[in-house]
Design brief:
Layout: E1 4-10, E2 15-19, H1 20-26, E3 28-31, H2 38-49, E4 54-59, H3 67-71, E5 74-77, H4 82-95, E6 99-102, H5 108-123, E7 133-137, H6 140-143, H7 153-169, E8 175-181, H8 189-192, E9 197-200, H9 206-216, H10 225-228, E10 233-238, E11 242-250, H11 274-279, H12 283-288, H13 303-311, H14 326-346, H15 355-368, H16 378-390, H17 400-409, H18 414-428, H19 436-443, H20 448-460, E12 465-468, E13 474-478, E14 483-484, H21 495-503
Helix pairs in contact: 4-5, 5-7, 14-15, 16-18, 17-18, 18-19, 19-20
Length: about 500
C-alpha cells in the first residue's frame, strides 16, 4: 500500500510528498544548524504519519511529549534501569504502541546508555513482532558521535553500536531510522552513510556544507545555497522524496514543543530599591536559612605532645577469636550460599539481568539469610553463578568428566562460562543438545544467532566439535572429556522457560 505524506510545498507551489513505504525501506537523514527547523520538520513527519505506522521517538530534550495529548503516544520516562527499558521496548514491539522516550533530566552518559538499551530492546525483539516502525532520533550526533568527547568510552561504544544496528541492520527487522543532527561532521560516517533520503537545512560551516553537497550530488559552488536557507526550508533528495535536489518548505504542525525559540520583550521598569531586592532574602528564604555560628578553633597543642604521639607505637590489632568448630561454620556458610544462589537462579527474570544487578541482589539476600564470613567478591560470584546456571546437580559433583568441564570453563570469560557448562552438562548426562533459545537465555539475550556464534567461538578454541546429523539435529562432542550430547533440535523451544511455566 502506497501512502503519501504531505511535508509542505515546493518552490513551484506543488505539494512536497514523501512516500512512507519507500521511507521505511531507505531511511532518512535530516541536517541543519540550531534554529533551522529540524524538530519542526520531524514533528510534521510524525503528525502526518501517525495514523499509518507505529512510531518511537528518542527525545533528549522532552520536546515531543506533547504528541501524547493529540496522537496517543505513550511517554516513557527513561529514568529507569537498563533492564527495565529493554523489557519495555520488547513489549512495545509486541503490542505496536507508539512511544516517546523522554531522556530529559539525565546527563549525557545516562542518555546514551538509556537510548542504547531501548534501541537494543526493539532490535532484539522476537521475529513474530517485526512490524514496520518509524524510529526517530533527534540530536543524533549525541548518540552516534564521530569522535570521543567528554563521555565515557563504555557509553559511547554501546550507544554507537545501537545506532549502527538501527541504521545498518534495522530494515530487515522493520525498523526505519530517521535521524536528525545539527552537524554532519559530528555524526559517525557509518551511521549517516546508511540513509538514502536527505533533507538538508541551513548550515554555515564549510565542512558541513561540503558534506551536505556531496550527499546530494551537488558541486561545491552550489553548496553556498545552504547558508541562504530560511527557517523551515530544506533541500530534499532521495527515492522517497525526489530524484533531483528539490527545495521544500515544511508545512504547519498541530502540536508544539514545550520549549520554543526566545522572543524579545521589553525589560520592566527598574525599581529604586533594586539592590535591596537582590541582596535581601525574602521571608520564605529566611525560614530556609539556618545560620549557625562557626565553631571556635581548637586550642593549639604543645609541640612535645604532638611529637610524643607521632613516635608512639601503633597498637596491635585485636586478633578475632577462632571458632571452636571452623569446619562446621564453613559448611554452614556454603549451604547458605547455595541456598541464596538457588533463589537467584529460580527467578525467571534473572537470565536477562546484568551481572552487576544480580551481584547486588546476591549481597542483599546474603544479609537477609545472615551468611557468616566476608561476602563473595565479584569474580568469585561470577564463577559460582556460571556453575549454578548450568544446574549440574549433586550427582555430578564427583563425576570426573564434569570436573574436567569445570577446568575447561576457567579458560573462558565470565559471561560465556554458563553457556559452555550447560552444553557440557548435557554431554556428561548424554542428554539432547540444548536449543539455540536455551543457550540465548543462558547468555542473557533473546537473539538465537548470538547463541550459534558462541558455539562457533568455543569450537574455534578447540573446546568442542559441532556436527549435524542427517535429520538436521545438532550433536556437540567434547574431545577432552570423551563424551558428546545426544542429538537435539537447534530450533527447539527454550526448555528452561517451558519447565518454569510448568512449575507455575
Amino acid at each position: 500500500m502506497k501512502v503519501g505524506i504531505d511535508m509542505g510545498a515546493t518552490t513551484n507551489g506543488t505539494a512536497a510528498m514523501l512516500d512512507l513505504e519507500e521511507l521505511l525501506a531507505t531511511r532518512l537523514l535530516v541536517q541543519g544548524n540550531s534554529g533551522s527547523g529540524k524538530s519542526y520538520l520531524l514533528r510534521r513527519l510524525l503528525e502526518q504519519s501517525a495514523p499509518w505506522v507505529q512510531q518511537c521517538i528518542i527525545d533528549p530534550e522532552g520536546d515531543f511529549v506533547t504528541l501524547a495529548d493529540v496522537y496517543g503516544h505513550v511517554v516513557v520516562d527513561a529514568a529507569r534501569t537498563e533492564a527495565e527499558l529493554t523489557r519495555i521496548a520488547a513489549r512495545i514491539r509486541q503490542h505496536r504502541v507508539s512511544v516517546v522516550v523522554n531522556l530529559e533530566g539525565l546527563d549525557i552518559d545516562q542518555q546514551m546508555k538509556a537510548a542504547a538499551a531501548f534501541l537494543n530492546g526493539m532490535f532484539d525483539a522476537d521475529r513474530d513482532y517485526w512490524y514496520p516502525m518509524l524510529v526517530v532520533v533527534d540530536e543524533a550526533q549525541l548518540f552516534a558521535p564521530a569522535v570521543g568527547g567528554e563521555v565515557s568510552d563504555e557509553a559511547r561504544k554501546i550507544s554507537l553500536s545501537a545506532m549502527t544496528n538501527l541504521m545498518c541492520r534495522g530494515r530487515k527487522r522493520g525498523l526505519a531510522g530517521v535521524i536528525a543532527t545539527q552537524r554532519l561532521a559530528k555524526l559517525a560516517k557509518n551511521v549517516a552513510a546508511e540513509a538514502s533520503n536527505f533533507l538538508m537545512g541551513r548550515t554555515f560551516l564549510d565542512i558541513d556544507m561540503a558534506r551536505a553537497a556531496d550527499l546530494l550530488g551537488m558541486d561545491r559552488r552550489q553548496a553556498e545555497q545552504f547558508r541562504d536557507l530560511q527557517r523551515g526550508h530544506f533541500v530534499a533528495l532521495g527515492p522517497a522524496l525526489s530524484r533531483r535536489p528539490l527545495p521544500v518548505k515544511i508545512g504547519k504542525v498541530e502540536t508544539s514543543a514545550r520549549s520554543s525559540s526566545p522572543k524579545l520583550m521589553p525589560l520592566p521598569d527598574s525599581p529604586v530599591d533594586a539592590a535591596d531586592l537582590i541582596f535581601t532574602p525574602s521571608a520564605e528564604e529566611a525560614k530556609m536559612i539556618v545560620r549557625r555560628p562557626p565553631p571556635p578553633p581548637p586550642p593549639p597543642r604543645p609541640i612535645a605532645e604532638i611529637l610524643e604521639q607521632v613516635v608512639k607505637s601503633k597498637p596491635e590489632a585485636e586478633v578475632p577469636d577462632e571458632p571452636l568448630f571452623p569446619g562446621l561454620v564453613e559448611a554452614e556458610r556454603e549451604e547458605l550460599l547455595d541456598k541464596v544462589m538457588t533463589e537467584i537462579i529460580d527467578d525467571p527474570e534473572a537470565a536477562y539481568r546484568t551481572v552487576a544487578v544480580l551481584y547486588q541482589d546476591f549481597l542483599v539476600r546474603c544479609r537477609i539469610h545472615r551468611v557468616p564470613g566476608e561476602p563473595l567478591a565479584l569474580p568469585a560470584f561470577r564463577r559460582r553463578l556460571a556453575v549454578a546456571q548450568a544446574s549440574g546437580g549433586d550427582e555430578l559433583i564427583d563425576d570426573e568428566k564434569w570436573q574436567t568441564a569445570l577446568r575447561l570453563s576457567e579458560s573462558l570469560t565470565d559471561d560465556v562460562q554458563g553457556v559452555f557448562l550447560i552444553v557440557a552438562q548435557a554431554a556428561v548426562k548424554a542428554a539432547p543438545c540444548p536449543s539455540d533459545a536455551t543457550l540465548a537465555r543462558a547468555y542473557g539475550s533473546h537473539s538465537t544467532s548470538r547463541a550459534r556464534r558462541l558455539l562457533t567461538y568455543f569450537e574455534e578454541r578447540g573446546l568442542l566439535v559441532v556436527r549435524n546429523d542427517f535429520k538436521g539435529m545438532r550433536v556437540v562432542a567434547f574431545p577432552d572429556m570423551g563424551c558428546e550430547t545426544a542429538a537435539g533440535d537447534p530450533n527447539g523451544p527454550d526448555e528452561s522457560a517451558d519447565s518454569a511455566e510448568a512449575a507455575e
